[in-house]
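Researcher: We plan to redesign the surface later, but first we want a full-length starting point. Tokens attached.
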């Protein structure tokens, strides 16, 4: 007990059990090393009697003080962790990082947990003098929970509906694709395949059957949005859970009955042969809306009735493919707002298939209809495996003289009775032949115009032509028409730079440059670097995994009407498709510049084009997840309690968790001093430090931290300090260079930045002005130091004794009076200094956390000396961080021992 005399009796007590803990007992060791059991209530009572002339024994005082200190230390630890949550939340609020709702929930949970822990430990410190804080915390916690919101309510409809039973307003009941198909059949009266909708109610029945929602949410908590490998692993685990789960019997029966009724309807229309095969197509809530989800979910084609249940689970599981999860994360879509409906449609054995755009997706002035077509089934058109034929038609009502571009189409996807679908060569005579006749082009154009007029906006339509010559609409959704900043006009050819690609189809205009990264597999996507140019044989919606990293995309094959092209437009990635030979002519690792305005790829970094680069905006700020974070943060981040002397500095004045944490932190020191004051005349616990340092510093001695004194006094000097770690810290803070007045240089930009932040910063920025109290809690080998120097706030916790494995330093530094840029530069300079001092360092925003563990006492003392110097060195650093060069320069000066700013 001599080397580390602190007991932590509450450390393993569940938080819910903290109330009433003072009525329990604590085991402690007496001076001889024997264990004793003392009731805390008796200790507290004996302490209270001191005021009536009854003096508790030193042994009992020590046990009570150490118990109280254990509560205090846990409170300080939670305060540190809470401030870290604030920093993380503030960083996400900048809108520059991708995150999901699970990240918001995690931050909120941690904030509530540590606030609760602080409140509970203040109760133990104060003999439950602040029990009303729990009611305040409960109210704020409920507000946070309300902002996080429950899972989206799924309307109570039947598990199965026919397309005549719903319309476009019933998206929540059947999902986006189904809702549009129901509208097309019942109100627009255009042909769609026979079938039915499996509703979101069916999805809820399945996912709730064996607690799948909880299992999925638990697995999602492990995802790092910036790490594709973590998304991949979580996806595999979740999909395995779903496809292996049993389907409720009531849903199985409903699906089989709906299939039999569909079969009867087909027979009534003259269908012959065996049981009809079907396609199961995803119809998630939110799909085919202002966000396309293009190609993110699964369609299972040409399945027999015996595979209906198995295939349904595969479509549901596709909610959690890596590309679907990455898409939702990047678009800030709450998983809680997603539910999967499924369209079950008679399989169209297609002669040809394709896509129709009723407007150019990249040129707001081009209002023509574009029809694309490939032989066979549609996936090869939308997934980019084949470059399709293109027909461009005027909206003049006659649709005459379309502009036609016929491509080479060597392969096609066809139905197969055994495999479902398979790839085969296109007969040689058809490989360069048009897929559609003039009459069929006109027919499709009329369908397209009718859909655009009905839905009152540009449409993205999928269609199929069966072998009997019947045309079907398979899907219709809003077409997003982007407006590039400089329009879509081609740029002039730049002389002096070798051309690797001279022509490609623009899916999204713009300019991007970087090293070429060839992608041929999922493994290549997982390794894709930030700032690369993605080069691939064909387009793929899987590329959404890296669209936030890619500066441009170039493929050999693909169509501007495909799924990946739609995603490239959503993510504003300059993209060229159908170049035919990009993957052959662009070497791996070669620096290239993609001009997606003109369809060209240059070798090297083309300086004249860089002014036309697409500016990446904030990926999150307009998304649902960001808005949820913003509302949740309003109950956590703002700080209204800034003046401890103000009448509103009370439990009733706490409006956020930050207010609660600030109130508890301030009152915890008062409670420790109150305890110390009761025993200081006998035990020597609490003192004011007299030293030439810019701090209003108070010391609490837990035993052995202050040298024995001949007379009782309330103040101590540096020479009176016996605590090894505190002496080391003060050694650095009391260097002569910090004692003499310095005329510090003022960089005017830095000065005005600091003054502006002081005058305009809102109360919740956390900037604490010079003059607030700082505290040191010490023993012979222990130091907990909480300080405010100027506008900077730091927490230091250290142990320095003969046992190397027990020795440590943890240090946190936050705050500053300058703008975000200068504060960030200062933090990076501090982080650089600490790294050079062999600390393990994490820097985030205007906060730095550092650790130095398991070193000899002399090494611990040396680093504490350096931190003492660093604390005073940083006082005016904000004003001097006027450029990026300042980061390195300030770190270099500190390491050289040059602390005198007057020479700057």
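Model: Full-length starting sequence:
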């Amino acid at each position: 007990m001599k080397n580390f005399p602190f007991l932590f009796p509450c450390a393993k007590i569940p938080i819910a059990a903290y109330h009433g803990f003072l009525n329990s007992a604590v085991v402690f060791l007496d001076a001889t090393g024997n264990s004793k059991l003392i009731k805390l209530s008796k200790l507290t009572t004996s302490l209270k009697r001191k005021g009536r002339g009854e003096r508790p024994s030193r042994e009992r005082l020590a046990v009570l003080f150490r118990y109280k200190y254990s509560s205090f230390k846990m409170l300080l630890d939670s305060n540190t962790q809470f401030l870290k949550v604030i920093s993380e939340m503030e960083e996400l609020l900048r809108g520059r990082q991708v995150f999901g709702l699970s990240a918001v929930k995690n931050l909120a949970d941690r904030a509530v947990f540590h606030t609760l822990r602080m409140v509970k430990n203040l109760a133990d410190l104060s003999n439950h003098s602040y029990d009303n804080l729990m009611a305040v915390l409960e109210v704020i916690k409920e507000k946070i929970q309300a902002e996080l919101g429950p899972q989206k309510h799924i309307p109570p409809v039947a598990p199965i509906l026919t397309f005549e039973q719903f319309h476009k307003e019933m998206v929540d009941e059947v999902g986006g694709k189904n809702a549009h198909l129901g509208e097309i059949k019942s109100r627009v009266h255009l042909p769609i395949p026979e079938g039915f909708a499996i509703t979101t109610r069916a999805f809820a029945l399945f996912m709730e059957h064996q607690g799948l929602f909880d299992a999925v949410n638990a697995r999602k908590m492990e995802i790092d949005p910036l790490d594709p490998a973590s998304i991949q692993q979580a996806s595999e685990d979740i999909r395995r859970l779903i496809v292996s789960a049993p389907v409720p019997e009531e849903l199985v029966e409903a699906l089989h009955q709906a299939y039999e009724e569909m079969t009867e309807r087909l027979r009534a229309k003259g269908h012959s042969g065996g049981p009809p095969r079907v396609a199961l197509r995803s119809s998630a809530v939110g799909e085919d809306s202002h966000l396309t989800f293009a190609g993110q979910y699964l369609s299972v084609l040409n399945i027999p009735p015996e595979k209906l249940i198995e295939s349904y689970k595969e479509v549901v599981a596709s909610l959690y493919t890596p590309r679907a999860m990455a898409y939702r994360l990047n678009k800030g879509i709450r998983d809680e707002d997603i539910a999967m409906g499924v369209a079950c449609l008679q399989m169209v054995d297609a002669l040809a298939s394709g896509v129709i755009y009723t407007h150019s997706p990249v040129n707001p002035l081009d209002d023509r209809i574009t029809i694309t077509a490939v032989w066979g089934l549609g996936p090869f058109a939308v997934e980019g495996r084949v470059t399709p034929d293109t027909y461009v038609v005027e909206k003049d009502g006659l649709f005459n003289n379309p502009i036609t571009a016929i491509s080479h189409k060597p392969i096609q996807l066809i139905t197969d009775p055994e495999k479902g679908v398979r790839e085969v060569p296109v007969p040689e005579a058809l490989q360069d032949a048009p897929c559609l006749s003039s009459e069929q082009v006109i027919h499709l154009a009329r369908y397209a115009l009718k859909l655009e007029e009905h839905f009152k906006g540009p449409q993205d339509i999928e269609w199929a032509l069966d072998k009997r010559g019947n045309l079907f609409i398979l899907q219709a959704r809003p077409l997003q028409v982007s407006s590039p900043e400089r329009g879509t006009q081609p740029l002039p050819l730049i002389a002096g730079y070798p051309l690797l690609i001279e022509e490609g189809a623009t899916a999204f205009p713009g300019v991007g440059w970087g090293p070429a990264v060839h992608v041929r597999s999922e493994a290549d996507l997982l390794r894709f670097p930030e700032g690369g140019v993605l080069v691939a044989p064909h387009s793929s919606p899987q590329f959404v995994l890296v669209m936030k990293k890619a500066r441009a995309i170039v493929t050999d094959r693909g169509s501007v009407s495909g799924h990946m092209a739609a995603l490239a437009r959503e993510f504003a990635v300059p993209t060229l498709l159908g170049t035919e030979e990009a993957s052959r002519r662009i070497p791996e690792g070669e620096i290239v510049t993609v001009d997606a305005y003109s369809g060209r790829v240059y070798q090297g970094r083309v300086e004249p084009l860089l002014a036309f680069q697409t500016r990446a905006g904030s990926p999150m700020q307009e998304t649902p997840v960001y808005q949820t974070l913003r509302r949740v943060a309003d109950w956590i981040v703002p700080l209204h309690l800034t003046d401890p002397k103000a009448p509103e500095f009370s439990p009733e004045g706490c409006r956020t968790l930050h207010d609660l944490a600030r109130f508890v932190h301030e009152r915890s020191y008062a409670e420790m001093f109150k305890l110390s004051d009761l025993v200081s005349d006998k035990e020597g616990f609490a003192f004011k430090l007299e030293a030439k340092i810019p701090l209003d510093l108070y010391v609490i001695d837990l035993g052995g931290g202050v040298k024995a004194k001949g007379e009782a006094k309330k103040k101590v000097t540096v020479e009176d300090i016996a605590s090894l770690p505190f002496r080391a810290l003060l050694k650095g803070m009391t260097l002569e260079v910090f004692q003499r007045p310095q005329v510090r240089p003022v960089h005017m930009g830095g000065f005005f930045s600091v003054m502006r932040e002081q005058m305009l910063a809102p109360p919740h920025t956390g900037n604490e002005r010079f003059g607030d109290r700082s505290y040191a809690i010490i023993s012979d080998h222990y130091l907990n130091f909480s300080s405010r120097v100027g506008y900077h706030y730091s927490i230091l916790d250290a142990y320095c004794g003969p046992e190397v494995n027990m020795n440590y330093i943890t240090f946190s530094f936050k705050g500053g009076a300058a703008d975000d840029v200068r504060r960030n530069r200062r933090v990076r300079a501090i982080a650089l200094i600490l790294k050079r001092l062999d600390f393990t360092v994490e820097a985030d925003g205007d906060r730095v956390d550092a650790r130095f563990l398991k070193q000899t006492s002399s090494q611990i003392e040396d680093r504490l000396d350096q931190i003492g110097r660093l604390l005073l060195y940083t006082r005016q650093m904000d004003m001097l961080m006027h450029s990026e060069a300042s980061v390195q320069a300030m770190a270099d000066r500190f390491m050289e021992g040059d602390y005198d700013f007057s020479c700057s």
